[in-house]
Amino acid sequence: MILLTGATGKTGGEAAKALLARGLKPRVLARNADKAAALAAGGAEIIIGDVTDAGIVRKALAGVEKLFLLLPNGEQQLAQEQQVVDLAREAGVRHIVKMSSMESLPDATAPIPQMHWASEQHIRASGLDWTMIRPNFFMQNFLGSARTIKEQKLFSLPMGDGKTAMADTRDIGAVAAEVLAGSGHAGKSYDITGPEVLDFHQAAERFSEVLGTQINYVPADPEVYLSILKRVLPNEWHANAVSTLFGEIALGAVLPHATDTVRQLLGREPIALTQFIRDHIAAFR
Ligand SMILES: NC(=O)c1ccc[n+]([C@@H]2O[C@H](COP(=O)([O-])OP(=O)(O)OC[C@H]3O[C@@H](n4cnc5c(N)ncnc54)[C@H](OP(=O)(O)O)[C@@H]3O)[C@@H](O)[C@H]2O)c1
After folding, report:
1. Within a domain: residue 143?
2. Which of 65, 163, 179, 241 lies 20 to 30 Å (CA to CA) from residue 232?
3. For the whole model, what pTM was predicted?
4. Assigned domain for 209 exists
5. Which helix (H) or strand (E) holds 190?
């Protein structure tokens, strides 16, 4: 049995769909039955509950061999992931597949990659088999700029001239599903990117090309952007953590490179930004 957390979200949802498409019937721990309805209709077993509830997590882990652990960023993410890992070991889970990030390194200085690295280390120390899913910046983050792209023909982010090797969450979920359904992935860390390293001016060129109209990238002032984040994100810790990470991208603190993980594991090319834009054209035009 495979258990997924985060399967009503972007990447976990893609991983669950890919498992169902393979004819597998994973179990999903979800907070909201409505959001999990499509997965239930597809054959997934749904356990309703919060990952912070140890009793529910124990129930969800019964008979599970492989666990996909994905939680959203927050001040409590490390503690929550450590608790799930400890409960998984107690429950006899054999293999944990953790959603981490490509910036998660021993010398990471931003809070989110630092947290991912500490969580990875907790899993490595658990004695269980593990696989780390380590994507770069999500293409889906552009959906947060869809309104300004549509209405003002621009997007504004505080990345300066920084570069990423952005990846589509459909590829990330498909890699996670391959790891969960397949074998030979224990002890592997998979850095996942799209096919190209782009700065955000180049990303704007891709939008212009696909949408057939000039789209501009307007580098945002980091302080102004932080004040916007504080209005839209659930708490100050999260806003500061995202702002610090974006600041590091702007500074080129972690130099991105394109990896061949998607090609190696899925036997096809990773989704390009132009394809992502075409697939979400109604949101952007
Ligand atoms: N954004 C990026 O560019 C990027 C790049 C690399 C790595 N990452 C990593 O990706 C992860 C987030 O992935 P995502 O964006 O695919 O996630 P997401 O779309 O934000 O979805 C989060 C999922 O977690 C569930 N969840 C949240 N709190 C929960 C709780 N207390 N108990 C049970 N379930 C809970 C949510 O359920 P509900 O539907 O009920 O809310 C949802 O299914 C983060 O760890 C982040 O560091 C992100």
Report:
1. no
2. 163
3. 0.98
4. no
5. strand 188-192
Residue to mutate (ligand 1; options 99, 112, 142, 254; most atoms within 8 A of CB)? 99
In short, whether 135's Cβ falls inside 6 Å of ligand 1 is yes
| Count of the separate structural domains present in the chain | 1
80 closest CA partner among 119, 133, 130, 32: 119
Q: Which range of residues forms the domain containing residue 40? A: 2-135+168-192+257-270
Per-residue pLDDT tens digits for 218-250: 999 999 999 999 999 989 999 999 999 999 999
Ramachandran angles phi, psi of 217, nearest 5°: -95, 120
* Residue 144 belongs to a domain: no
Per-residue pLDDT tens for 30-47? 999 999 999 999 999 999
Q: Is 4 helix (H, G, I), strand (E, B) or coil?
A: strand
CATH of the domain at 94: 3.40.50.720
11 touches ligand 1 (CB under 6 Å)? yes
